[in-house]
Write a structure and sequence with these properties.
This protein is of the alpha+beta class. The protein has six helices and 14 strands. The chain binds guanosine-5'-monophosphate. Guanosine-5'-monophosphate (5GP) binds next to β9, β12 and β14.
Length: 237
Amino acid sequence: MQMTKGKQLYEGKAKIVYATDDPKQVIQYFKDDATADNAKKRGSILDKGSVNNQIASHLFQLLEKEGVPTHFIEQLSDREMLIKHVEIVPLEVTMRNITAGGICRTLGIEEGIVLNPPVFEWHYKSDELDDPLINDDHILYALKAATVEELALIKKLSIQVNDFLKAYFAERKIDLVDFKLEFGRYDGQILLADEISPDTCRFWEHGTRRKLDKDRFRRDLGDVESAYQEMLKRVVG
Ligand code: 5GP
């Protein structure tokens, strides 16, 4: 599709959003920049932008076929995705199938405990506050960030995404440990937005528990680029 890239609308830690000649569509450009610990740690992962765009584009298309509405329209190039111009709901959903990261710190439990059923969390999307863990009442009555109906739909869609992705990665010998999702509003609809990639998910190689995601960068484990390439091969290859 011929699409004119217009002015920059927003620059985040890992992506830049550009206008197009259609106000209802924008271009999401994936950078190699990497941050961790709320941008206290900064760096770059070679070709991460390209890997994440390819993985996210592939997964959004599969999820659409499963009946999950997403912001994805088309992969335009190596690092560019054409998306619907949503208004992001300022919430982050975390789905956890195995304990790691935040849940271990919050509850003082060890990494690697299987969570069945999975654990669903709401976080308030706020860099200043470090994306705090919040509950439905915080969202509905304190923040007034979404409606009861929106929360119910986002939760239902998140469970559907987890069920699908967990099985999809299991077939590729990957344990889907946890992931973060964001949603947006578009024409009165709730759409899955942002990205699904090794930046936003924890992936462990089944059996060995080798980490194949951004934890290699966060925890200085080395072999970061090769882990991203390995995930690209397993997802798309
Ligand atoms: P945790 O709460 O354990 O730090 O993160 C849970 C999961 O959500 C991990 O897979 C992590 O990558 C993802 N996640 C949570 N918050 C963020 C965020 O602000 N940015 C990104 N890229 N991923 C996040």
